[in-house]
Specification:
alpha/beta; Rossmann fold; about 270 residues; single chain
């Protein structure tokens, strides 16, 4: 308690020597999260399918004076391997960020027109992989740690034309709350729900390059999100500044609290 009293608020954000795993950290939000954690002292384990993207992220982490490990692979059914490699290299695991998500498809469609195969794929990518990551992390964190799931505003409400993704993220939100209760007091589990962040993946999957102004008009703070907006929230939740925070969903969406844009399939596109 005396040590706590001597700490400043700035000290609570410092994470020197802690080890963080960030899935999907080759680009976009995942890369920003990995760099943000390195900025505050973490050594970082990177994971995605594309090693060239990971190498770019790794170079930036090394410039910050932190150690980095690249573990290439599709995160589905890969979390145990990722956690094992982390412990082999660093001997500890303090922070795990389940950032992988999105869609293997490059289109949107009504839920009733979605095949069983596509629905299962979305659940596997966006929910099952996070469940596996949480298990792998929790079994190695011991009596302290922080797990952060990257969810979505789509998981908090009805989400026309992106139904499988939204259903998976809604499941992630409940997964977060349940694990927070089961793993307390040793391990904190929280989620961040980004609003529209104009990453390459966002543009590619939703095909919205010609709708960005329309989407921006639905956001009270009058701009699209950037990856660092999400990274800042993750840094907070990972740090001791959030030591009394668990089971929470932090919506980072520029003030947008409801669905204000439907990502309808474009006319003439294969749906």
């Amino acid at each position: 308690m005396e040590d706590w009293k001597r700490m400043t608020l700035r000290d609570l954000f410092e994470m020197d020597g802690r080890v963080a795993v960030v899935t999907g950290s080759g680009q976009g939000i995942g890369r920003a999260i990995a760099l943000g954690l390195a900025d505050f002292g973490c050594d970082v384990v990177l994971n995605s399918r594309r090693v060239r993207d990971l190498e770019v992220t790794a170079t930036e982490i090394e410039k910050r004076g932190r150690s980095v490990l690249i573990v290439q692979g599709d995160i589905r059914d890969f979390s145990e391997t990722l956690a094992w490699r982390t412990m082999e290299r660093f001997g500890r695991l303090d922070i795990w960020v389940n950032n992988v998500g999105g869609s293997d498809e490059k289109t949107t469609r009504p839920l009733v027109e979605t095949s069983d195969e596509v629905f299962r794929s979305q659940i596997d990518l966006n929910l099952t992989s996070a469940f596996q990551g949480c298990k792998a992390a929790a079994s190695r964190m011991g009596d302290a740690g922080s797990i952060i799931n990257i969810s979505s505003g789509a998981g908090t409400r009805g989400s026309p034309f992106t139904g499988p993704y939204a259903a998976a993220k809604a499941g992630m939100n409940n997964l977060t709350q349940t694990l927070a209760l089961e793993l307390a007091p040793a391990i904190r589990v929280n989620a961040v729900a980004p609003g529209p962040v104009a990453t390459e993946a966002f543009r590619e999957v939703l095909n919205v390059d010609d709708q960005l102004d329309e989407i921006r008009d639905t956001i009270p703070l009058a701009r699209m999100g950037v990856p660092d907006d999400i990274a800042a929230a993750v840094v907070y939740l990972a740090s001791d500044a959030a030591s009394w925070v668990t089971g929470q969903l932090l919506l980072v969406a520029g003030g947008r609290t409801h669905r204000a844009h439907d990502y309808r399939p474009k006319q003439g596109k294969d749906s």
